[in-house]
Specification:
6 helices; 198 residues; alpha/beta
Amino acid sequence: MSMNPTILIIPGLRDHVEAHWQTYLAKELSKCVIVPPLEQDKLSCQARLDAIDRALDSIDGPVLIVAHSAGCMMVAHWALRRARPILGAVLAAPADVETQMPAGYPTKDVLADNGWTPIPRQRLPFPTLLAASSNDPLTQLDRARRFANDWGSQLVELGPVGHLNPASGHGHWPEAQQLIQDFLAQIEAQQTEPVAQG
């Protein structure tokens, strides 16, 4: 495969978690940048988008985003107002910030006050793959299917894998590498398809 993008990892609201699959994935990749934790305004959606821009500014060449949880919602917001072209995004276990999440997570009112809602529903301007769990405590599967439909995402239903986080047994998640490779191959195939003459 000729594509060799830098992978930009966008964590959720809990930022860097040592035993998280995104952390393990970053260690396995040769070209990878992680959006660093915020020191202040940690719940501000705008501050998160600015952090994504800063991380992108450090990268030359093509970029593939790999986002998890609220990071998926950051991508949806970022896509509306940012111009840098990217190859695509893998959106794993998006957090439904419009529905009350379990105890320990910010309330939907707090998230609304910090600019997270409404969730953007426009088709995203780059290819996306949405990987959804059937028993995610942060997003019902039918909501994940609707996000995929609205965003124009390829939907991959993973089965009962919880929120794809250490609490659901997903430190290592080896399927992530395969999903990324398959998705990149699809993007490359689409980019090299001959244009139909008509």
